[in-house]
Amino acid sequence: MRLNVLLRVKFIKISLFLVSLMLASLAYAIAPVVDAYDDAPPSPSAPANTPPPARSDAPSTVPSNAASFSLEQRVTILERQITNLNPVLVQMDDLQQQLQTLQGKIEAQQHSLKALEEQLRSQYLAVEKRLGQRLTANSYTQKPIAAPIANTSPNTVNESMADSSKSISRHADAAPTAASERAYQAAFQFLKNKQYNEAIESFDSFVKKYPADLNVSNADYFLGQLYLLQGQPELAINFFKRFTTRYTQDARIPDALLQLGLAYFAKGNKEMATETFEKIVQQYPDSKVAQAAQARLQQFKAMTSAANLATKDKV
């Protein structure tokens, strides 16, 4: 997908270059032609004994002003060439808009890839740490308990969760927890190996099969990044909106909002992209994400100004 986008960008740049050459050739063609002999000094009179030049009996087919054009002729030529130039200007403006759209998609994919790589590193470390804690907790749960108390879970992992009743019901059966962990790790391994299509399928299957699992937030976040990276901004928007709505206390909310704005821009919805970036600047003014969002807003203003100038030139 990225290769196709890059090829389209190169094609548009070549087209713009050819259009520029055409404009340059037209400008050269409409330059006024001046007869080199119009301002030449009069030639000295011939001697009296010099015979007059021989006159041909055949009529001349070349007009006497063939080397120059009158003012009216030049104006006519300019009007005709300007009329022919209007479709070229329209085509050039369309190519510029397509180039801006493709550049927006490339920037969104590059940001998503960079964020995805950073998340992979941090997620990999977090997974290893969590697995180590889980193995330690399981070693304690295997010890016999003399007098178990009703409605009390022996699993020490459940005691560290905010809502103990939900945690107990979630981990009441060890088999589903182990199965969900294996499913998540399989999807994560695809992501780590940059097998993005397989990772999308595995994460999507994991979310549908284990909707209450603790790793669903990670899966939603990864799915948003993967769809944006694969050039499917509409699906990326769905997952980033769901992530920012469900997990309001997650530390990745600012970056998820930034990628949501990039997905809107890649889709061509500049209005929603601007609204999202402005929201980031207002809610997280001192963050790096806010700086990136502010840079996007400045880019939008520059693009709008250029479009307005192009419209005025057409008029």
From TrEMBL:
Keywords: Cell cycle, Cell division, Coiled coil, Periplasm, Signal, TPR repeat. Residues 1-29 form the signal peptide. It comes from the Bacteria. Residues 180-309 form the Outer membrane lipoprotein BamD-like domain. It is found in: Periplasm. Residues 70-133 form the YbgF trimerisation domain. Residues 92-119 form a coiled coil. Residues 41-54 have a biased composition (Pro residues). One of its GO terms (biological process) is FtsZ-dependent cytokinesis. One of its GO terms (cellular component) is outer membrane-bounded periplasmic space. Residues 150-167 have a biased composition (Polar residues). Residues 40-64, 147-174 are annotated as: Disordered. TPR repeats lie at residues 254-287. Belongs to the CpoB family. NCBIfam families: tol_pal_ybgF. Mediates coordination of peptidoglycan synthesis and outer membrane constriction during cell division. This is Cell division coordinator CpoB. The gene is ygbF.
